Amino acid sequence: MIWEKLDPAMILTNLEAHSSDEVMEKVGGAVIRAGYAKESYVQALKVREKDYPTGLDVDGIGVAIPHTSVDHVLKSGVAIATLKQPVTFVQMGTDDETAEIKVVFMLAVVDPNDHIDELQQILAILQDTTVLEKLMNAENAQQIIDLVKEKENTL
Amino acid sequence: MKKKVIVACGGAVATSTVAANKIVELCKKNGVDMEICQCRISEIESNLPADLIVTTSKVKRDYGVPLITGMPFISGVGVAKTEAAILAVLQ
């Protein structure tokens, strides 16, 4: 289960950010401070996002899943951020289509094959627009954790 | 004959792992004998030949092999259509 492993230090609600780089700095910074990634993580996120964008349009709700190669990660985890104002990201699988991102799931992956279930759980959460709407209205980390738990219990 | 499917993304970390897993399940359910080769976009060429390439990133090159976007496996939008397209190539 994802919710049991969520670290409140990596859950940011109503985050103020004006660019995808600023999202990487703020959310990635929290991941580094919480001990899940190396100092190089934020820069690696920014570079990778330019080459392989991670914005998704989930039935009208913009969700981004920034991640890097395993070299910059210390332990596996996921950071969740809701954005005060939408931030423009390029959509995954394109080089020019954009999505207005409101929710960010930042992944710290050590060995993808070990975490396939967790990755699929995260995708199941972000593919559910009802859950996304609730996440966007959450006021604090605990509410986010509770919403993830609630969703996971239905999977 | 066993089919070979290359599943590629930017870093072979997250999205291609999920897409590969979905394709394995899909093929098992439909009795398609296949093997997956998961790699980075930059490694596609060295893993050819293959019967199908599925990517979660934009690929401009033509590898001479059917190429299908695996994006629906990530966003959840349009999965059935993508699954049908994959089976159409492999069956």
Would you write up a description of this structure?
The complex is a heterodimer of chains A (155) and B (91). Chain A is an alpha/beta fold. Chain A has a single domain, classed as 3-Layer(aba) Sandwich (Mannitol-specific EII, Chain A), CATH 3.40.930.10. Chain A contains five helices and five strands; from the N terminus they run βααββββααα. Chain A has a five-stranded mixed sheet with strand order 1-4-5-3-2. Chain A is globular and about 35 Å long. Chain B is α/β, with parallel strands linked by helices and 91 residues long. Chain B has one domain: Rossmann fold. Chain B contains four helices and four strands. Chain B has helices spanning 15-29, 44-47, 71-75, 79-90; strands at 3-9, 34-40, 52-55, 67-69. Chain B has a four-stranded parallel sheet with strand order 2-1-3-4, with helices on one face. The longest helix of chain B is centred in the first third of the chain and has 15 residues, at 15-29. Chain B starts with a strand and ends with a helix. Classes of the chains: A alpha/beta (155), B alpha/beta (91). At the A-B interface, strand 2 and helix 3 of A face helix 1 and helix 3 of B.
